[in-house]
Automatic annotation (TrEMBL):
Its EC number is 1.5.1.5, 3.5.4.9. Homodimer. NADP(+) binds at G163, R164, S165. It catalyses: (6R)-5,10-methylene-5,6,7,8-tetrahydrofolate + NADP(+) = (6R)-5,10-methenyltetrahydrofolate + NADPH; (6R)-5,10-methenyltetrahydrofolate + H2O = (6R)-10-formyltetrahydrofolate + H(+). It comes from Companilactobacillus ginsenosidimutans. Residues 4-118 form the Tetrahydrofolate dehydrogenase/cyclohydrolase catalytic domain. Pathway: One-carbon metabolism; tetrahydrofolate interconversion. This is Bifunctional protein FolD. Pfam families: THF_DHG_CYH, THF_DHG_CYH_C. Catalyzes the oxidation of 5,10-methylenetetrahydrofolate to 5,10-methenyltetrahydrofolate and then the hydrolysis of 5,10-methenyltetrahydrofolate to 10-formyltetrahydrofolate. GO terms for biological process: L-histidine biosynthetic process; methionine biosynthetic process; purine nucleotide biosynthetic process; tetrahydrofolate interconversion. CDD domains: NAD_bind_m-THF_DH_Cyclohyd. Residues 137-279 form the Tetrahydrofolate dehydrogenase/cyclohydrolase NAD(P)-binding domain. One of its GO terms (cellular component) is cytosol.
């Protein structure tokens, strides 16, 4: 089994990205990202910490804007308006999930689509599905970057994605479809999930349940991509896939941590640098 080593790939791609940042710096431009965090969610906290670290490594500006869980929707919307109009910020995102008293759709709709580095705004979702992407959701983009790095050709492959979220499942489906894969999106109402998953040449798992997928779900020689950020019975970070159980069945597989997570951040930073390059070129 070949381990799809997101940490290694991210490290390799960082070099080129640092160069792009240096080139922008010569033109007096620092790529700037802002992250809005409301309350405390453990997956978000890991993400925020690693993003700050990577931005620093690449020489980018990264602002963290923190609100308590009881912040009003109005306060949040005002901050978004500010970020929409801040010329030093090329892109920003609001960490999800948001507390229940805040209307997530309203918040996402308030973000200027041009600065929507998450690619969650309806405009960008539309662009993605018609095959003319603008900003792309970072996790999906990171997965595609990683598979590309390992020369995985998706053309004609049977892909099964378990999970239909707007953040992961749907954008992965759109992007793999654009690579000519045959894509099936499974979810909690799917019948005979094990049998279906076993038809997959590429199995993408994004359901948020610790070690849910074992070798009964995996075809011999399949490629398994684990998007989970869960905690096991000992509170240790783990994925949606039981790595130890699946490792002798899969041909290639991402670990957690060190798989999709670092690639998500690579894709996000790549997006921000690209927006800064657009700013530099007027
Ligand atoms: N608007 C929004 N967009 C998101 O993309 C988004 C979000 N909200 N909310 C939270 C989730 C979670 N997420 C992670 C990304 C990378 C790691 C990551 O760096 N993982 C490391 C963890 C390593 C360590 O333990 O520090 C790894 O997998 O190796 C974690 C979590 C993005 N999300």
């Amino acid at each position: 089994m070949i381990k799809l080593d997101g940490k290694k790939v991210a490290g390799a791609l960082d070099e080129k990205m640092s160069q792009r940042v240096a080139t922008l710096e010569e033109k007096g431009i620092t790529p700037g990202i802002a992250v809005v965090l409301v309350g405390d969610n453990s997956a978000s906290a890991v993400y925020v910490r690693n993003k700050q670290r990577r931005a620093e490594k690449l020489g980018m500006r990264s602002d963290l804007i923190k609100f308590d869980a009881d912040v009003t929707e109005d306060t949040l919307l005002k901050k978004i308006e500010e970020l929409n109009n801040d010329p030093a910020i090329d892109g920003f995102l609001v960490q999800l999930p948001l507390p229940d008293h805040i209307d997530e759709d309203r918040v996402i709709n308030a973000i200027d689509p041009k600065k929507d580095v998450d690619g969650f705004a309806p405009d960008n979702v539309g662009h993605l599905w018609i095959g003319e992407p603008q900003t792309k959701p970072a996790t999906a983009a990171g997965i595609l970057m990683m598979l590309d790095f390992y020369d995985v050709d998706l053309d004609g492959k049977n892909v099964v994605i378990i999970g239909r979220s707007n953040i992961v499942g749907k954008p992965v489906a759109a992007m793999m479809l654009a690579k000519n894969a045959t894509v099936t999106v499974a979810h909690s109402h799917t019948k005979n999930l094990k049998e279906l998953a076993k038809t997959a040449d590429v199995l993408v798992v994004a359901i948020g349940r610790a070690k849910f997928v074992n070798k009964d779900y995996v075809k011999d020689g399949a490629i398994v991509v684990d998007v989970g950020m869960d905690r096991d019975e000992n509170g240790k970070l783990c994925g949606d896939v039981d790595f130890d159980d699946v490792q002798d069945t899969a041909a290639m597989m991402t670990p957690v941590p060190g798989g999709v997570g670092p690639m998500t951040i690579t894709a996000l930073m790549d997006q921000v640098i690209e927006l800064a390059e657009e700013r530099a070129n007027g």
